[in-house]
Amino acid sequence: xxxxxLAGLRLAxxxxxxxxxxxxDLHANAHDASHFLLIPQAVVTAGNAAExxxxxxxxxxxxxxxxxxxxGTSLSGQAVTDGVLVDVRRNFRNIDVLDGGARVRVQPxxxxxxxxxxxxxxxxxxxxxxxxxxxxxxxxxVANNSSGMNCGTVDNTYRTLESLTVVLPSGTVIDTGAPDAxxxxxxxxxxxxxxxxxLADRVRNNADSVRRIRQxxxxxxxxxxxxxxxxxxxxxxxxxxxxxxxxxxxxxFVAEAVFRTIPRLPHxxxxxxVFPDLEAANSALPALVETGAATVxxxxxxxxxxxxxxxxxxxxxRDLAVSxxxxxxxxxxxxxxxxxxxxxxRGEGILPGLGLSAPARFTGDSRERGQLWQLRxxxxxxxxxxxxxxTTALLEDIVVPVSVLGRTCRELIRLFDKHSYSNSxxxxxxxxxxxxxxxTDGFATTAELDRYSAFTEDMVDxxxxxxxxxxxxxxxxxxxxxxxxxxxxDELYDVMRTIKQLFDPAAMLNPGVLxxxxxxxxxxxxxxxxxxxxxxxxxxxxxxxEPVCPSKDITLTPRQRIVTLRAIESARLAGDTALVKExxxxxxxxxxxxxxxxxxxxxxxxxxINTGSLVKSLRTADAGPLANGAWNAAARHWExxxxxxxxxxxxxxKLPAAAIAPPNKAARAVLGADTVPLYSAELxxxxxxxxxxxxxxxxxxxxxxxxxxxxxxxxxxxxNAEERGVQYxxxxxxxxxxxxxxxxxxxxxxxxxxxxxxxxxxxxQTTMREKTLAALREATRDGELPIVCDASSxxxxxxxxxxxxxxxxxxxxxxxxxxxDFAAEHILPRLSDHRKxxxxxxxxxxxxxxxxxxxxxxxxAGAVAERVEIxxxxxxxxxxxxxxxxxxxxxxxxxxxxxxxxxxLGAAAHVSCNRTCELxxxxxxxAQYRHVLEVLEExxx
Length: 941
Fold this sequence. Notes:
With 941 residues, this protein is α/β, with parallel strands linked by helices. A 6-stranded antiparallel beta sheet has the order 12-14-13-16-17-15, sandwiched between helices. A 5-stranded antiparallel beta sheet has the order 5-6-10-8-9. It has a 4-stranded mixed beta sheet with strand order 1-2-4-3, with helices on both faces. Strand 16 and strand 17 (434-441) form a beta hairpin. Helix 1 runs antiparallel to helix 3, helix 20 (558-574) runs antiparallel to helix 21 and helix 36 (888-905) crosses helix 37. It is globular and about 90 Å long.
């Protein structure tokens, strides 16, 4: 490979800083969800299609490979490179809904979930429905011809694509939907135009080629190029557009695409059908499909055994004595309740004749359906998360004719046994003959690679003998590139090679992907996973965490934090001390300082990793004795600390900004940006003390007002004396509802402990936890009364403190309730009719999301306003206690898109349920955010 000339890349983009070559940038971005690993020479964040064209030309001029990366959820190695890696996730996120939702124009950095959220208001959805929809992006969906559980081959990417704008390797940009697209392609790319026409004639005039293509693409098939486009379309422009689909970034860059959407069916019913064995399940498929089943998901016997230990598994599986059983998860979808009832009637009508091993019924209950889908979707997480430390999980997929699916699965199980792969569950989309299976191993030693190679050869023979395809959904990538010729034969393989030469004569776009003459290519560049930390060793690098991470557009994501630690450990084991030093030099800011430790990554992680916990442990390890001692002292004298902070904010709030900024910035420069907060004008003055006299009568709940109410005064208090904060508002609401509250004695010296845990100050956290739990034991009469807190992050912190306590024999466990939840259950039903605002912008918090409070939050917000708007771009604000004051750039990045959306809403009021999040959103939007209970109290006076 030629040496990289960075100057050429930097000239291709607007800002030279878009080209990154630090070790941490290269290693953090090297990983996608596959089991392959190559380290790029440079990572470039492209801003638009013109920059992509410039990068393509610069790369071709140097003879350096170039690869595009968006969501990085692909499993076959198609998004890794040792050349130039171009990030198209950050700046390509536009969505334009067309024709009332019937069509949509979308850019490659948009996730499928975000696209469906936009389409939902029109009663429409995107056709492809991949399981990775929360994180996979349209760029990858097009590159892999994604399908999913429901869409099959009818509504996949290929079938729903209308047009696309492609940047060819030459830098030429073609919008295939433009009226002059044919003329432009013929004029600017004459060799490509003529070559595609010749290839179409060549294929159409070869009866064997036509037969083979029709057979291969009658099922899900992402192996090689989409040769069906040469038969399905006449003109070179349409052929080109559909060849791009499934080309895995080897033919060009899709800057945007226009799709036809499909109706969103709001009604569904599901059942889990358990059969004696795989053959019985397979035999039932035709009848089930004929009834109109939208989804039929297969689980083999080992899947059912794994599922029996998952939390919430339904009794039909939990109580089953599994031997050779198999199960089908069947779901019907409909546009109306009447249509669903008809479908259920058909499905239930055939159940008696299926020979089931256990009774079954269809349910439309969302909770019960959720349990069934949790069983199906939890298989991968359970097996991958439980794999031995230091091993890699390799998830494969194949497709065969539905009639031979049972036999193929049985043979796969035999191959697992033959090659000593244990815990290799089989699951997948039975209606399409498409199943997934997992292998876990080190894939590092000669013996491990020989075993994998032998298994792969046997598996390839099995699938091709049954007339199947070696890749159904995941793309050819690197893992199956050596086998494309074997699947298609010499003639069609030569057609594919000609396609590549026509589009990319320099062979610089993603070489080694989709076709590779090296028969051992799939055994090279397999990543190793050195053990690093118990919190993260089960990470499979899937990238599901990235869309919800507030630092994703400024520093590192949870996946990148983990893989960089692995890179450091790998370098240490290899004796590469220079690389260790270089990675560690930047890791502090990129990973530790700018992590909000909000835990949203855990809500998206299939193996339940909270990377925030990892960062907390790193902060604990880095905390010196001086800082630990200071924070421990603060825990012992917390009342004085909070009152001091309140007084300081009150004083500086009255001073001009010009008097505050210079000494504040000087202190940050001397003591460090991660130590001294940056003051900003929107911060309020200090708050008030929390203590209250004990009530005389019976008590309904213990009230734990959060200490942030002491440090930070209420929004708008300087201009309106009626603004008294959430403590006053909650107390007034409870009084109106006839509820009596007890505030614990010594409350001004108590805290949930989050400031210590988030900073890694273990001694102070222990001191505060012991103080607080003792006070709560006394106030609740040893657990008799519930404890209510008025800030969601503090409620979560208290819950964690409570859960860490081991009650003595006979002691009740303490019960934590958030004020929003308490209000929804106990206050709203007792309030009289009251006026409502016209509209409300609502910001759920990371803690309200993690604790499952958002339904209650929505109920309270619904009592405040006629229309409640949660921005589509909602996410963690990253204020994270004082993190937004220490690193305001983090909050600015996390809230940028949401803030723009909030401005467009024009809501009458703006609310949340946590004081520091309210401060963060106030800074981001310029609108005063308040606790939702404050607004409710005003409206019910």
